[in-house]
C-alpha cells in the first residue's frame, strides 16, 4: 500500500503557515488520493472541488503548494488539467507508479512462492505418511498370508511342526479325535469348511466340522485369529472342540466362530496322567465381560420364559 509522506518539519514551513489549516486540509486529502490512485501528484479538478472549496485551491496555488496548467516551476511536470502537487517526489518521499507496481509484483511473487513451498511440504508429509501406512499394511499382509507348508513337503508326514507349551505335539487336523469325545463321527470332506494353503487354524476348522457343527462363519479379524492360535497352542484342539460342541448343544451353533473365543480363553489344559482318557474342559474362574454378561442374562431370561410357556401349554 503506497503512502503520502510529508517532512516532519513541514508544520512550521512558510508555505504551510501562509496557506492556513483549511487549505492544508485540502492539500493533505488530495495528496493521499494521488498516492492511492498512483497519479504521481496530479489532482483532478473534480477531486479538488469535492474535497475543498475554490478559495482553498487558489490559496494552495498562490503559496506554491499546488501548480495549475502553464506554471513555470522547473521541478514539477505540467498537468493537463486540474492541479499538480509541488515537489511530489522530492527526496524520494513518495513513490512513482512504476515503483509501486514493481513492489506489488514482487510481493505477489514472494507470496506465491511461499504458498508453493508450504503446499510442497504438506504434500511431502502426506506422501511419507501414506508410504509408511502402505508399507505397514504390506508387511502385515505378507505375514498374514505367508503359506503354511504341509508336513508332507518337509518329509514329516506323521507329525505336526507345531509344539505345545508342555512339550507335546499339538493335535493335527487330520488326526482321529479321542474316542471319549462327542466329535469322533466322520464327516465327508465335501462338508468341511474351505481351507486355504496359508490358513493357520485350518486344523481347528476341520475338527469343528468333524464334530458335526456346520454353518459357522470363520471370517475373523487378524487379532481374533491370533487369539485362537494362542489358545490352541496352550490347551490343544480336543478341548476347544469339546467346549464348542457343549455350547452348541445348549445354545445352538453361533453365526460366527468369534462367539467361542472368550469361552476358549477361559479353558485350562487337561493335565491328567491317565493315558487315553480325555477330561472335560476345565474353565478358569473369571469375570465375564459386560457384553457377555448381558448376553448370558438375556439367554437365561428367554430360557426361563420358554419353560414357563411350555409348562402353561401342558396344563
Features:
mainly alpha, two-stranded antiparallel sheet, three-stranded antiparallel β-sheet, 9 helices, about 325 residues
Secondary structure blueprint with pairings:
Elements: H1 14-37, E1 42-43, H2 45-51, H3 54-63, E2 66-67, E3 83-85, H4 97-144, H5 202-210, H6 222-235, H7 237-251, H8 261-265, E4 267-268, E5 282-283, H9 290-314
Helix pairs in contact: 1-3, 5-7, 6-7
Can you put this structure into words, describing what you see?
With 315 residues, this protein is mostly helical. 50% of the residues lie in helices and 3% in strands. It has nine helices and five strands. The protein has helices at 14-37, 45-51, 54-63, 97-144, 202-210, 222-235, 237-251, 261-265, 290-314, and strands at residues 42-43, 66-67, 83-85, 267-268, 282-283. Helix 1 (14-37) crosses helix 3, helix 5 crosses helix 7 and helix 6 packs across helix 7 (237-251). The radius of gyration is 47 Å and the shape is rod-shaped. It starts with 13 loop residues before the first helix and ends with a helix. The model is unreliable at 151-192 (pLDDT under 50).
Strand order of the largest sheet: 1-3-2
Helix/strand order: HEHHEEHHHHHEEH
Radius of gyration: 47 Å
Q: How big a fraction of the residues is strand?
A: under 5%
Largest sheet: 3 strands, antiparallel
Number of strands: 5
Chain-averaged pLDDT: 77
Q: Helix fraction? A: 40-55%
Q: Quick recap of the structure?
A:
This protein is mostly helical and 315 residues long. The protein is built from nine helices and five strands.
Amino acid at each position: 500500500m503506497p503512502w503520502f509522506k510529508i517532512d516532519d518539519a513541514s508544520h512550521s514551513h512558510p508555505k504551510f503557515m501562509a496557506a492556513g489549516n483549511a487549505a492544508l486540509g485540502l492539500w493533505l486529502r488530495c495528496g493521499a488520493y494521488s498516492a492511492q490512485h498512483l497519479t504521481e501528484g496530479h489532482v483532478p479538478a473534480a477531486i479538488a472541488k469535492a474535497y475543498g472549496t475554490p478559495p482553498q485551491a487558489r490559496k494552495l496555488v498562490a503559496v506554491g503548494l499546488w501548480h495549475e496548467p502553464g506554471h513555470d516551476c522547473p521541478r514539477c511536470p505540467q498537468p493537463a488539467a486540474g492541479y499538480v502537487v509541488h515537489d511530489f517526489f522530492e527526496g524520494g518521499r513518495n513513490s512513482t507508479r512504476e515503483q509501486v507496481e514493481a513492489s506489488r509484483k514482487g510481493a505477489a511473487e514472494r507470496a506465491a512462492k511461499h504458498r508453493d513451498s508450504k503446499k510442497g511440504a504438506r504434500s511431502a508429509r502426506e506422501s511419507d505418511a501414506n508410504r509408511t501406512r502402505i508399507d505397514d499394511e504390506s508387511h502385515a499382509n505378507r505375514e498374514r498370508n505367508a503359506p503354511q507348508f504341509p508336513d508332507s513337503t518337509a518329509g514329516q508326514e506323521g507329525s505336526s511342526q507345531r509344539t505345545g507349551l508342555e512339550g507335546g505335539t499339538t493335535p493335527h487336523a487330520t488326526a482321529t479325535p479321542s474316542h471319549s469325545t462327542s466329535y469322533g463321527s466322520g464327516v465327508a470332506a465335501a462338508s468341511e469348511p474351505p481351507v486355504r494353503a496359508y490358513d493357520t487354524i485350518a486344523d481347528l476348522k476341520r475338527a469343528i466340522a468333524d464334530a458335526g457343527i456346520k454353518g459357522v462363519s470363520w471370517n475373523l479379524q487378524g487379532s481374533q485369529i491370533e487369539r485362537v492360535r494362542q489358545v490352541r497352542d496352550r490347551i490343544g484342539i480336543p478341548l476347544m472342540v469339546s467346549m464348542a460342541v457343549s455350547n452348541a448343544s445348549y445354545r445352538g451353533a453361533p453365526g460366527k466362530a468369534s462367539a467361542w473365543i472368550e469361552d476358549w480363553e477361559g479353558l485350562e489344559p487337561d493335565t491328567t496322567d491317565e493315558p487315553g482318557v480325555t477330561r472335560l474342559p476345565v474353565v478358569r474362574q473369571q469375570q465375564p465381560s459386560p457384553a457377555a454378561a448381558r448376553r448370558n442374562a438375556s439367554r437365561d431370561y428367554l430360557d426361563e420364559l420358554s419353560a414357563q410357556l411350555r409348562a402353561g401349554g401342558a396344563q
